[in-house]
Amino acid sequence: MALLDVTDLTVSINAGARTAAIVENLSLRLERGNCLGIVGESGSGKSTAAMAIMGLLTDGPLQVSGRVLFDGSDLAQMRPAEFRKLQGTGIAMIFQDPMSSLNPVMRIGDQIVECLQAHRRLTKSSARGRAIEALARVGMPDPEGMMHRYPHQLSGGQRQRVMIAMAIVFEPKLLIADEPTTALDLTIQAQILHLLKQLARDLNMALVLITHDLGVVAGMADDVIVLYSGRDVERGPTQEVLENPQHPYTRGLLGAHPSMDGESARLTPIPGSPPSIWQRPSGCAFRDRCPEAFDNCAQEDPQPVAMPQPAHKAACLLHARATQSKETA
């Protein structure tokens, strides 16, 4: 049984008589101890999907449908109090910007202690000890001294380590990391990613890594899902997808990323911008930016087609047409 099993997750927003999907029919499975990368440009629905899985969209203007099973339990059927207990303990999340996620007028230690006491009946002294242990576990220098500092007194990398400490203080089974290396320089990025990988191994923790950086996915994820305009356009084992991309969008992302082997210095940007959720084109949402689009792309909604490699799928009419040609040959 998978630790996380998501089926047809859809997040929609209503504006008067209009409805638009931000995430549409996303399904995924994640085993304990594995890492899943979710990749796409800004606005592709990555963070929205993560927040829906975490149950953070239930009280807002968005409508969430589909099924999310965590460790065999249907999260939609949980009582609110039971779900709140799971959030932060069974499932934890690291948000994009630690400076906006941390309270600027509270000391770091007080914030972690508050988090601990919200989920456990701990004395302040016991919670303080757990907080110091968590800061030490994420590699913070002088963790006891750090308890007395405010967020603005820390570097970007240190603030991110504090966020990770708060997320893993209960040793969750699943950690969702939303762009955990945003705005960090390359050296600190590498340190944070190494820390996440080490914690996932030590705690036997599953990791969902949300990023726009294929280099991050290459070094971290066992499997990858590529999102475009809220839809899953390609998925599979990370090495297979990156070495043998089958969707034009995935190839475009790779072409716009610096070469990992240093052989090519020229980048090829993807022309245009992703469509607004209110103005998605008919057929394939990527067709207006795709160098391989043909007439049917404007009429047909591409469905995932299995590649020769097991578990590798791409939602592109090029493959559907190739499959039909083989069947009629």
UniProtKB/TrEMBL annotation:
Matching Gene3D superfamilies: P-loop containing nucleotide triphosphate hydrolases
Record's subcellular location: Cell inner membrane
Major location category of this protein: membrane
Membrane topology type: Peripheral membrane protein
Record-linked InterPro entries: AAA+_ATPase, ABC_Ni/Peptide_Import, ABC_transporter-like_ATP-bd, ABC_transporter-like_CS, Oligopep_ABC_C, P-loop_NTPase
Pfam families the record matches: ABC_tran (PF00005), oligo_HPY (PF08352)
Domain ABC transporter, residue spans: 4-254
Family that this chain belongs to: Belongs to the ABC transporter superfamily.
Protein name: ABC transporter ATP-binding protein
Organism expressing this protein natively: Leisingera aquaemixtae
